[in-house]
Amino acid sequence: MNESSAPATIPAFEERLLELADRLPKRLRQCAEFVAANQDRIAVSTVAEMAEGAGVQPSAFMRFCQIMGFTGFSEMQRLFRDSYVGGWPDYTTRLDHLREKGGETGGGLLAEFVEAGRASLEGLLKTVDLQVLDEAVATLSFARVIHVIGMRRSFPVASYLSYAFEKMGVPAVLHSGLGRLDNQNAIVEGDAVLAVTFSPYAVETMDLVEKAMERQIPAVVLTDSTVNPLRKAGARLLAVSEVDFGAFRSLSATLCLAITLAVAIGTRRLSE
Amino acid sequence: MNESSAPATIPAFEERLLELADRLPKRLRQCAEFVAANQDRIAVSTVAEMAEGAGVQPSAFMRFCQIMGFTGFSEMQRLFRDSYVGGWPDYTTRLDHLREKGGETGGGLLAEFVEAGRASLEGLLKTVDLQVLDEAVATLSFARVIHVIGMRRSFPVASYLSYAFEKMGVPAVLHSGLGRLDNQNAIVEGDAVLAVTFSPYAVETMDLVEKAMERQIPAVVLTDSTVNPLRKAGARLLAVSEVDFGAFRSLSATLCLAITLAVAIGTRRLSE
DNA sequence: CTGAATATGGACTATATATTCTATTTTTTC
DNA sequence: GAAAAAATAGAATATATAGTCCATATTCAG
Q1: Shared domain check, A161 and A252
Q2: Contact A249/A223 with Cβ under 8 angstroms?
Q3: Which residue, B251, B241, B243, B214, is CA-closest to B230?
Q4: Is beta strand A172-175 parallel, antiparallel or unpaired with respect to A192-197?
Q5: Number of structural domains chain A divides into
Q6: Among residues of chain A, what percentage have pLDDT more than 90?
Q7: How many CA atoms lie within 13 A of B87 on its CB side?
Q8: Less CB within 10 Å around the terminal CB: N or C of chain B?
Q9: How confident is the model at residue A64 (pLDDT cuts 50, 70, 90)?
Q10: Which chain B residues contact residue A99 at CB under 8 A?
């Protein structure tokens, strides 16, 4: 029974499990089988629960963890918890470290941002609600004109959407809030609003969407969580959670969802 | 603050969160916002971790749980652990699944764009020239004012850079080309130019950079290949190759490089 | 069948974590 | 601007849970 070192990834964990499977005594094999069939439970259960599930005593389960190479259940659980949250590290503290060290090279910083972007994209696949996405596409495809709005951090996204629509020949207007003009009156029946807004929500954006909704103009909102005041008003919410590094969101996932939305709308329009 | 009964489902939980969101004191609102943006973490984190994430004391987070209607954190966590049905397939499986079944619906498109974004980010790490990056950071850190320019597809990137600089207190001007004014005269000795441009290169951008270089104003150019007319003129070129899907580039890599540049400049300025 | 080796169950202990309490600060109200 | 109310931070406490140990049971070799 070599103890070696603990698996560092889930594939490595599975490897190990497979390798041990046959030469394990009864109770420990029960553990192995239960774990194999219920991997996901490890992250959210206690030893007692896992042991009960496997039909063994907690202490037997502990031995199983140790034979797998971990010091105990907690260490094994950490592997699954971390991989569940996509290894989202605490970027804020890491950035602080970078700041303190000061002389960090650009390469290290780049790696951090690439990692944040990658994690965001993966998270997007997991969390996006395809039904809402399709509904949003439908809503916006029928619009006479799409009014795009986004301030501050969301402005790059809004301008990219606007560029994409332009390129595909979809009628769209980018509301910039320039000079505090909100061009409310330009939004007429048959149009639709596509807003991009992240907490803290820009008042200009919230205002525009709210006023539009009051007039029965449909609205789609790209935002950071489904808990957004605009939901009460009846807007379709597309939630994207970005991993942020320090004070900066990567925007990768948001832009990705934005371009998907734009292209889907563009093609849908063409075919009708 | 009525205690009523605890939400029994996640939608009910969200409802409650939304309902409370505005009439919550500072710290508790921080909790609400963090929870809204990181719902999935609740199942696998401790109060201490959640509190740290939200930037509050554990006790504040406990109060938040109670106001949400639970007796404490454990009860709230149970809701999320129970509803964590698991079986969340990993990134690749999910991607394949979306590609196959997604087909014409939004899902298939999304999978393609996510993949394009991810590939771009990976490519970025491999191809970026760290030495040039560090030189670019040095050049721009010493500038009195950074003049940012980017048209069409590059405009979102330019505006994001401009936003990031603003947030970090780095003096920067976004040249939009609005009304065909190029504000050449605003660029004076001691300043620097940061241009974003992809083939086909916008004349406004090329003009601005060329004229600046003639006057010995240093320029950094974020572009798609090292064969760019501006190199001859002496600009520092940062090349990014984006993977594109259909007619659309993902921008992920470009934005990632842009934010790295911005943050590196911001921190460098602070430390000098 | 007997003795050695191994596996198991369950009680015990250590520790991590949730929860509560209170002094202090901040905000609100008059 | 002072008093009252509410909110907050941090220490103190309670509790749930992981981890250990050992007596007993089981398996295996000869």
Answers
A1: yes
A2: no
A3: B214
A4: unpaired
A5: 2
A6: 35
A7: 2
A8: C
A9: very high
A10: 267, 270
Q: What is the pLDDT of residues A160-210, one digit of tens each?
A: 999 999 999 999 999 986 655 666 777 888 999 999 998 778 888 988 899
DSSP letter for each residue of B15-41: HHHHHHGGGS-HHHHHHHHHHHHTHHH
- Tell me how far apart the alpha carbons of residues A139 and A103 are, in angstroms, rounded to a whole number: 50
Residue B106 domain-assigned? Answer: no
Which nucleotide's C1' sits nearest to the alpha carbon of A48? Answer: D17
Burial A174-207 (b: 16+ CB within 10 A, else e): bbbbeeeebeeeebeeebbbbbbbbeebbebbbe
At which of B51, B83, B115 does a domain end?
B83
A260/B113 CB distance under 8 A: yes
Residues in chain A: 272
For range B244-257, the mean pLDDT: 84
Structure tokens at B227: 């064969």
Angle between helix B106-127 and A130-141 (nearest 10): 110
**Taking CB atoms and an 8 Å limit, are B160 and A164 in contact across chains?**
no
* A99: closest chain B residue by CA: B267
Partners of A150 in the β-ladder: A196
Bases of chain D with protein Cβ within 7 A: 6-11, 16-21
Q: What is the residue range of A25's domain?
A: 10-84
B134 and B74 part of one domain:
no
Q: Are A189 and A216 in contact (CB under 8 A)?
A: yes
The Cα–Cα gap between B79 and B63 comes to 17
